[in-house]
Amino acid sequence: MRQNKTGYASIDLPQSMDSTFFEKNPLIPNANIYTTIKLLSAFYMDKCAVNCFDLNASYGKILDDAVTVSLALKELGVKKGEIISVCMPNFYQALVVFLACNRIGAITTFIDAKASVEDICYYLNEFETPIFVNFDSTLLENKKIKENTKVKYIITLDKSKVNSLDLSGDFKITTYEEKLDFSSLGSIAKFRKIKFEKLHGGKEDAVILFTSGSTGKPKSVVLTNENILAAEIYAKNTSHTENITGPKTLTCVPFSYPYGLITSALTTLLWGKEAILAPDISKDTINYYYRKNPSIVFGSPALLDLTMKNVDENLDLSSVTHFISGGDFLTPQHYKRGIEFFKSHGANVELGNGFGNAETVSIGSTPIGVPSKPETAGKLLVGTRVMVVNPETFEEKKYNEEGLLLVSGKHVFKEYYKNEELTNEVKININGTEYYNTGTMGYIDEDGYFTPTGRTSRFYIMSSLNKVYCDNVQNIISSFKCVKDCAVVKVSDENELYVNKAYIVLNDGYEPSDEMIKQISELCYLPTVIANDRTTQLKSYEVPTYIEFVSELPRIKSSEKIDYMILEKDAKEKLEQKRNIRLIRKR
């Protein structure tokens, strides 16, 4: 075991030992993502960049399309710093919009493709979006958006044109909803006389993506070009990606999460590899995507389970060299089953956990290109500074002592959108260095590997790779008039991997009954007014599958917080025994 000088990670930088001076002190270019990809791909423009369904686009094509779309956006009046909102699955066209906005200094945000119209309108108003890009929407939906927001133009990608690379469609604006066809952007671009744009630098905002805090309410995280490029460079210098074999990656996580857009898709393009986009990953499509022969899979425990349960017995998976679980933590048992599964399908896979927060571009450690330690979340990033501290005193702890993880580096996010107070709460200055409070407990070993032991936020990932935030679900249910208190926990499910169960304390005057179950079920599917008069709505996959009425919720004595561990254990036992379970709906 290597002996360190002090035993403190913030001083010894164990993750950077044996690294070169320039790896420890990397130069982060003052450039935007579009320009960086353009420069890096100059010698392989004809190489495939994106594979999505039946569509294959080269690096030259995606960059050319980004220019075309950027000219159309400028012609439609988009200005530097404005926020363009995109609501569609992981399509090629979504990446093009991001690169187009990035080229002209506009900011992109991705809204959950399954969000309700009410939630879409909320975000469009929050971001003051002038142009909204969506997929296969009805005229009624677009009309409602136009009537409830200040969006000037709605650009809609038609379902029949998902596989099309043609942007030369006829330019026309329909009447009341002012809807543009995505394929007509090439025609609009021809009106633009100024073809060249001023290059935009690294300090400028690039994207707004979402995360969740301890309450489960999503936070809008503003990331700059520098944040993204720094995270990519730190990861490359840690894992030495030039030594990672295989040209293709499988990108399954929705673009509304940093792990989807940045860690998976943009990492692939900056590496010069081919991104296989999977907009509809499920038990019915999993074989289709593996037949595209990915080498690197950006996954999660849920995707690993989905793979092991549904991949055809004789399917050759020898193309897969790396499976990265960044969405959640693989247990040692899960890891062992995954290794054995891939071996049975002809694949010698490096399988490991990654770790990250949206606030660190979802890249905080890497399990690939470094010696394997499957019980950890991989090696912390070379070029960053980290420490584990006492969560109450912020006194630094030594190696292998559990505490709260703090991270410092140029990949740390700029701010929470329009929330200076919350931003200041998670950015901490210690001895002249600004750290981000990850909200994750764990410990660092002498080799610079991090092992998380708990998270402040509670969520689970389904087989579809949709994230469900338990606190968000229970906050909405708690707003129902009949509900006094509510706690939501995950339970295992044969088809979805995980679903949730709600423990509900009814208000006085309401009695547990089948009729009450029916009423709560109906309320779950309706728009609901919650804190700050915000109207929101549960997505279909968030609605609890099970419900149990209780007289009170278990509490942790010292803090009086709900004891979720007791509830999870109770839910598991009762599900196995098939008792005291009230089914809201069947999935």
Walk me through the structure.
With 587 residues, the chain is of the alpha/beta class. Helix content is 29%, strand content 24%. Strands 7-6-5-3-4-8-9-19 form an 8-stranded mixed β-sheet, with helices on both faces. The radius of gyration is 24 Å and the shape is globular. The termini are far apart.
Secondary-structure map:
Blueprint: H1 9-12, H2 21-24, H3 33-40, E1 48-52, E2 55-58, H4 59-75, E3 83-87, H5 92-104, E4 107-110, H6 117-126, E5 131-135, H7 139-148, E6 153-157, E7 179-181, H8 185-189, E8 205-212, E9 218-224, H9 225-239, E10 248-251, H10 258-271, E11 274-277, H11 286-290, E12 296-299, H12 301-310, E13 322-325, H13 332-344, E14 350-353, E15 365-366, E16 379-380, E17 385-389, E18 403-408, E19 415-416, H14 420-426, E20 427-430, E21 433-444, E22 450-455, E23 459-461, E24 467-469, H15 470-478, E25 483-493, E26 497-506, H16 514-524, E27 528-529, E28 535-536, E29 546-549, H17 564-577, E30 582-583
Parallel strand pairs: 1-11, 3-4, 3-5, 4-8, 5-6, 6-7, 10-11, 10-12, 12-13, 13-14, 26-29
Antiparallel strand pairs: 1-2, 8-9, 9-19, 15-16, 17-18, 18-21, 20-21, 21-22, 23-24, 25-26, 27-28, 29-30
Helix pairs in contact: 4-5, 6-7
Task: Summarize the model shown.
Helices cover 29% and strands 24% of the residues. It is of the alpha/beta class and 587 residues long.
List keywords for this structure.
587 residues, alpha/beta, 8-stranded mixed β-sheet, 7-stranded mixed β-sheet
Strand content: 15-25%
> What coarse outline follows from CA principal-axis ratios?
globular
Average pLDDT value?
87
Low-confidence stretches: 212-216
**Number of beta strands:** 30
